[in-house]
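Render this sequence as a predicted structure.
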Amino acid sequence: MDKPWYRRFFDRSQEGTIETTEVNTDQEDAEVQFGLGLKFANESSPNQDYAQAAHWYRKAADQSHVLAQFNLGVMYARGQGVNRDEATAAMWLGKAAHQGDAGAQYHLGMRHHRASLDGQRNNAPESRLEAFKWLHLAAAQGYKDSDAACEFVALGMTQQEVTAARHRTAAFVVVNPSR
């Protein structure tokens, strides 16, 4: 005798879930792809595989998934599952920061701050302005340590630079990618 319909509904096997996930990833479902990236990036998981995590994050990031962009940027910065590439890391972090992700804004601000200290005096004022802007934006969202980092950056700036950086911060508009 067959099971009643409601038993079949509640008694689905894991294979059905896997098939559904494969269908969703084939359909370019960014949220599912991001979830797979998280699954493979989880260090406590027996299936931890940074290369697979980067693969799935990239699929979601290409669809403007902000957390996937942030995570992919961090992976490129650390060389986790991908070759370490500072330019690619900055690109993905920048995309996430422009969409308003506080973590990406903080990381981008710290990158600009480090760049301002690297000895290229021609680029230092611009890097300080950008560092202040990104750190201030992250601080406005309550991101941990960004307020103190912003104040620290401001200590190395002139009053005119701080004023210019505040204007940049005020003029910032979050980019909402069209889907």
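Summary. Residues 4-23 have pLDDT under 50 and may be disordered. Residues 101-174 form one domain.
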